[in-house]
User: What shape does this take?
Amino acid sequence: MVIYSNNLHQKLQGIAISKEYLKYNTPFCDIVDDPEFELDFDLAIGYNSAVNGNLSAADSFIKNLTLNSAFLDWSTLDYYTKKTSNNPIFASSIREMQNRFDTPAMFDDGYQQSLNQQLKDCLNSPCNLFLQTSDSVGRMAQAASTKNSGNTFGVGTMSASMTNMLDDLDQTIFNKIPALFQDGFVEITGVANKAWTNTQAVLAGKKNISELNKLAQEGRSFRNTDKVYRYTPDIKSYNDYSASGSMILNKIKESLGGCFDKFQYKYRYNPYNDNGQFPSGDRVASVNGKDIEADGTGKVHRTTNNNKNFKGQTGNVSALPPRTIVPSAGNAISDGSIAISKVYNLSPKGNGVRAHYSVFAGLIDETNNILWYENYSKLAGDIMTLKGINNMNETDYRIGISYFGSDDRLLRDALNGNLTPEQAASSNAYIIPGAYARGYRHNLTTEGMETLYNTRRAPNFYLNDGVAISQTLFKAFVNDPEVKPLVTTYKKLQLKNQFFAALRVPNGKWYYYKVIDWNGQKDANVDLTVGAYQHFMRVNGLGELSIPKGTQKQIKGTEWSSVKKISHDNLGPLEVRLCQGNINDIKAKLGTPTSDEYDDAIAQLDAAFVEPEDGAPLVSGISQEDEYDRGLAALDAAYVEPVDKALVSGVPEGYDQYDDGIAQLDAAFEASQDSNLNQ
Assistant: This one.
């Protein structure tokens, strides 16, 4: 049984008027038709109808809740059980349901037949939700809680196996207190237990300790012997509890039937611990017959345009305010094997900028001995990012980590290489010292930016650098009528290493960065890891990563320092294309320009080299040679490695177009020479 809790039932109370109302007037529009949530919505709608005076709905609700109790989580079941038990409108329906369990022969309708049939299912039988049971069912089966000062002998060789940590505290209660108080209770109990075991050793007598240890190991009593051992505990009772624990649980299971899961939930669930955890990694959900991205909790990543439906429900004739369209240019490419977006223009992130780039995640920079990190932790997903967890899964495809942990000595020893192999292997992989000790590193080459690495796989143990693409930018791509994406979700192609962002400075060379995560920003955003950011700056001759003032701190006892990367470097305007498909096929399409890009390059040359008959001089202050070099550089930037690349189908080979451009450039230059057009 998966132990978890949710509050969907609470959020639906009072607003679950109908499915139509939920779909068009609430934030739940995206999941109303999801089959996985159908039962939740039906129950919420039925409950809302019942509490508004519908006796028939009350009866149907109790029957529906009970019959499906095996398939609902216990946070939902507990909520509705408590609500209905204290509401008179459900009283008669609850009494009837209890009678259906106690005296099923009284009923011969179709519902009773269904209930009887499902009760035969030993794994998923319904639970009598309104049967009063204690949270402490199976108390004698709690081996740890049965230990106390009167039945344990933690002396000598038994000091480990008979350690009293809970001292009779019911484990159900123990699991309902915060970890801070759990640790405090265990620590106090441990101190008292140590004092008591020292007393036991004195009272038992040193000469008897070895004999007593032998009896304890054999499971025998200290009482049933020829020799009298005074002031010794009754270990036989503890041994009996331990031996009978499994049989007790079996009897409880037989008695509770489908309600045994309730016992498990009450026994195991800790609201202070488990609520801070959730399934990591995105998943592909099916909504209205289409695949769509959802997070580990099932929340769908989609914004729906409900203008038409909104008007129908409310009578409001005004349209919902549209979001700013991302500026774009060029043509999208889609041929069934690859899908490439238009060119989206990005600016440095700042106030009022709706399409931008930024930096995130951590970097272990062994060249400069710098640990780059961030500390943004507003949302649960941000906390996962700080641990190096992305949307793909928790363990296999890790990204740069930002948590240092609380042990300064561990960090120092890890960076200095002073940990033993055993210590390294057991260290926490979700903090920087643990990751470094385990051998996690970065590959800041072009190959490293394009390749998805399994972080746990030898020999490299590479952390993944690349980009996170905002949902807004991704939606602009998949909703472009000029392109048919291979899939409309992130994760499927990510795991195949077939999802990239092509980045370049305007008219520069395209560089490709694998999409290693998504982000929920409402703006069109490309978020580069610190490693990817550094790579892009270096290959484009834009310098090195800047260190924000006051953020670099020396790590004591090491040659390393840490830098909190709280801002990104301003690289000016950038261009991005989202790409799906094989990386080599994508490069073949973008490695040389399309016909439109060729025309743009020629136009640029024409603008730089004015025809002599116009009588206009070249740009003031720039020599002819500089103008020629500038035009040649522009042409080279537009036509990357024409020897290795062929142009898009329908356009002459790269050689021809490149040669034509050079010929035009030469002609313009020679003409300007003849006309003596100097600066």
